[in-house]
Amino acid sequence: MATSKNLHKVQKQIAKKRGGKSNSLHENSRDSQRLRRAGAREDKIAKIAAAASRANQTYVERVAFFKSALKEATTSMSEDELRALTASYIARDDEELAALKAQRRPGRPSSNQEDQLRHRVEAEQKEFQSGFWIPDTRDDEGLKKLRAWNEDWSSLNTLKYVRIGKEGGMRASTFPPKGLS
């Protein structure tokens, strides 16, 4: 008999085998152990999928920012305009960070939210020094594809990307971003 790994399938097989009485299982029976393993497997898969989704969300938000910022642009962007737009993306939370800092009493440690914002801004500044990963909108085709993007992670691979440096320089990049690609 083939072993099934899906919790629903395991429940269905056990119910079929027992004639619909799956609630009267012994605590350490083989069937209850199968149910526990299948449940743990589903929890593990859900946890991994949620972590991957959270990791991907930063890139989705980044491209969504550029899409909304370029909504009214009629022509493709120059390298300097992209650099200025990238700097404004990095500075998007400066007001919130200043407000959190002003709320804090003197001599008190910073809040977790303030720490997270500060670390994210520092990481983005560091990435901007070496090359910030953004969608390539230097030509009309790239701008058109960005406007047509449906704001979903799975459709990000249709766009072209570049890494733009703070001091200058721009080079082609890949999707998903890996290191300094």
TrEMBL record:
InterPro entries named in the record:
Tma16 (IPR021346), Tma16_sf (IPR038356)
Where are stretches of biased composition, namely Basic and acidic residues?
27-40, 115-125
Q: Where is this region: Disordered?
A: 1-40, 101-125
**Compositional bias (Basic residues):** 1-20
Q: So which domain of life are we looking at?
A: Eukaryota
- GO CC list: nucleus
Q: Which family does it belong to?
A: Belongs to the TMA16 family.
The protein's name: Translation machinery-associated protein 16
The source organism is Endocarpon pusillum (strain Z07020 / HMAS-L-300199) (Lichen-forming fungus)
Organism classification: Eukaryota, Fungi, Dikarya, Ascomycota, Pezizomycotina
